[in-house]
Amino acid sequence: MKLIAKFAVTAAASLFLAGCLSSAFELGNSAAPPTNVTVIPGDSSATVTWTGVGNVQYWLFAAMASSITTENWNTLPGGRALINVSSPQLVTGLINGSTYSFTLNGRENKGPGGTGSPSVSIIPRPAGGSWTAGAPLGNDLRAAAFGTVFVAVGAKGALYTSPDFNAWTPMVWTAKTLPLATSTDLYAAFHTGAVYVVAGANGVLMTSPDAVTWTAQTTGTTKTLYGVASNGLGGYVAVGEQGTIVVSTDGLTWTVVNSGTTQDLFGVAYGNGVYVVTGAKGTLLSSGDTSTWAVLSSNTAADLRGVAYGVNSVSQTLEYVAVGAAGTVITSTDGTAWTAQTPLTGSNLNAVTYNRQFVIVGDAGAVITSVDGTAFQMRDSGTSSDLKAVTHNIYGLSAVGLAGTNLTSL
Questions:
Q1: Which residues touch 365 (CB under 8 Å, ≥6 apart)?
Q2: Residues 352-407: pLDDT tens digits?
Q3: Cβ within 8 Å of residue 33, ≥6 positions away
Q4: pTM of the complete model
Q5: How far apart are the C-alpha atoms of 134 and 408, rounded to whole Å?
Q6: Could you give phi then psi for residue 276, rounded to 5 degrees?
Q7: How many domains, in total, are found in the chain?
Q8: Angle CA(267)–CA(273)–CA(277) in degrees, nearest 5?
Q9: 315 lies in the same domain as 267
Q10: How far is CA 311 from CA 321, 333, 400, in A?
Q11: CB of 128 within 8 A of CB of 395?
C-alpha cells in the first residue's frame, strides 16, 4: 500500500515538473520586421529609426559590411546584436569612413525572431560637414562649452543653456540669469570634471557645478578675461587683456601670475602636460606649471584667437592647432616649435575645437574642418554671421556667434 502511495506521489511530482518545464520552454511567435527602417549616419555612430508594432520586441543587428542578414551577422566583422530596442536607437563605437549595415527582426512574447528587414548601409563620418541653424538668440554670443549640458555666454551677461542633443533631439536654448551686480560682457566658457567656468569683462569669473547655480569668484584682476582652460586634474588657467593670466588649483581660489607679456591674450588650451596661450600680434606662451611662462616664436604677426589640442588622424600623433586673423593657422606637435599652414580664407578665424577632427570657425560664417591640421576643407555653414566659438558633445558640434547665431552639426 505504501509502495502504491509512493508511486502516486512520484507520478504527481513528475507531471507537475513536466508541466513547469513545458511552460518554461514555451515560446511565443515570430513577428514581421518593422517598416520604414532608416539609418542616419553620424560621427562614429548611426541613428536607426523604424515604425513598429507595440507588442513586438525588436532586435537590431549591425556589422561592418556592405550588407547583413539576421543569419550571418555574427560571422561579419564587428557583428553585434542589440536586444529589445526601441526607435530611435543610437548605435555607437563605429569607425568613421567604414561601411556598416543594419537589419531588424521582431518577435512576440520572447519567441523566435522573424524575417529581417532589408539591409540598410551607411558610412559614418565626423561631425562638421553640414550645419543646421537654430532660432537666433538675440544677444551676441562669444563662448560656448559642454559638460552635461551646453552653455553659451556673450554680451551684457547673456547666458543660455541647452540639454544634450542628438539626431532626433534638436538643440533648444533657454535664457538664464547670472547673479551679476551689473551687466557684464562675457567672453569665455569652459567645463571640466564637475565645474563650469565663465569669465569676461572687469575680471569677472563665475563657477557652477550644474550650469544652474553660479558663484562669483575673486580673480585678483579687473582686466577682461578672454579664455579659460583646465588640465582636467584640478588646475585652471584664465587669460585676458594686457598679458593677464590668473591660475587656480580648484577653480575657486585664483592668483595673478606674471605672463612675461603685455599683449592681449585670447585663447588657452592644455595638452601633453603643457598649457599653450595665444594672443595679439602672434603672441604665443607656454607653461608646464602655470607659474613660469615662456614666450614662443609663432612665425606670424597675426592676432591668434584660439587654440586646441587633438589627434592628427593621418600620422596618429598629437598636436596643437592655433587660429587667428586673416585665416591664419599654425600647428605644433610639442607646443614649442610652430609651423604656419596655408590659409583657406581671408576671414578672421576665432575659435577651434577637436572632436575626432579639428573644427575651426570664424567671421562671415567661416567653418573649416581638418583631420590632420594640415589639409583643410571649407564647409557651408549656411550663415554669413561672424562665428565666435565652437564646442562639442560626444557626437555633435555647436557653434555660436554674433546676433545670437547658433548652429549644430552631427
A1: 381, 382, 383, 384, 385, 386, 387
A2: 999 999 999 999 999 999 999 889 999 999 999 999 999 999 999 999 999 999 99
A3: 103, 104, 105, 106, 114, 115, 116, 117
A4: 0.88
A5: 8
A6: -120, 130
A7: 2
A8: 15
A9: yes
A10: 10, 10, 24
A11: no
- Regarding whether 101 and 228 lie in a shared domain, the answer is no
Asked, for residue 392, whether it belongs to a domain, the answer is: yes
Domain of residue 365: give its range: 132-409
Kindly report, residue by residue over 133-165, the tens digit of the pLDDT: 999 998 999 999 999 999 999 999 999 999 999
Residues near 26 by beta carbon (within 8 Å), at least 6 away in sequence: none
Instruction: Examine the domain organization and report whether 156 and 240 are in the same domain.
Output: yes
Asked if 358 and 214 sit in the same domain, the reply is: yes
Cβ–Cβ under 8 Å, residues 407 and 170: no
Last-in-domain residue among 57, 89, 122? 122
Domain boundary among 122, 157, 185: 122
Tell me whether residue 147 is in a domain: yes
In angstroms, the CA 82 to CA 163 distance is: 26
Look up the CATH number of the domain holding residue 92: 2.60.40.10
CA R_g for the chain:
28
pLDDT score, position 2 = 36
- The answer as to whether 6 is a domain residue is no
Grid cell of 97 as nine digits: 569612413
Task: Render pLDDT for 5-24 as a digit per residue (tens, 0 to 9).
Answer: 333 333 333 333 333 333 33
Strands (E), 329-395: 329-332, 339-341, 349-354, 358-362, 367-370, 377-379, 387-392
| 352 and 330 in a common domain | yes
Pairing mode of beta strands 225-230, 215-217: unpaired
377 in the same domain as 308: yes
Tens digits of per-residue pLDDT, 240-250? 999 999 999 99
- Whether residues 214 and 115 fall in one domain: no
Return the residue matching grid coordinates 596655408.
342
Mean pLDDT of 98-114: 97
The rounded Cα 200 to chain-centroid distance in angstroms is 24
- The answer to whether residue 127 sits within a structural domain is no
